[in-house]
Amino acid sequence: MCKLFIDADPELWRSATHSLRIDGMVTSVRMENYFWQLLEEIAQRDGMNTAQMITRLYHESIDAGHDLGNFTSFLRVCALRYQALQLSGDIPPNMAVPIGELDAQEILSRESTLRDITLSERALHKKHVH
């Protein structure tokens, strides 16, 4: 099992710092190259470069009332969610389909339903175990 991870290209886990300007302020974000690759792919789907997409994520998160105290962690989770949504089939593999054209509310609703079912099943299992 571990060989799949250990023998992967070490460039994937090397960190890189990217500087970008958000609202006129220069900020630096340091993440592993693998996350940068995923964020670049997300941006390309919607016709943006990575800096534009990150700026948009920042603005939309602030508009939604989120505390972005650890913005780098937020970006990592965005990248992982992108992959998870691809695996679940909610984001099609066809790179020509922009993420902005997907029905986000429908996807979030489906996720919420699945989460509720999982929590109910866990509670039921826990009840039978004890």
Observed structural traits:
130 residues, alpha+beta, two-stranded antiparallel ribbon, 2 strands, 57% helix, globular
Question: How would you summarize the topology of this molecule?
Answer:
Blueprint: H1 3-6, E1 15-22, E2 25-32, H2 33-45, H3 50-63, H4 71-87, H5 104-129
Subunit arrangement of the protein: single chain
Rg is 18 Å
The proportion of strand residues reads 5-15%
Shape: globular
Helix tally equals: 5
How many DSSP-defined strands?
2
- For the largest sheet, list the strands in their spatial order: 1-2
Structural class: alpha+beta
**Fraction in helix:** 55-70%
Q: Overall pLDDT, averaged?
A: 91
The succession of helices and strands, N to C, reads HEEHHHH
Amino-to-carboxy terminus distance: 34 Å
Largest sheet: 2 strands, antiparallel
Flag low-confidence runs. none
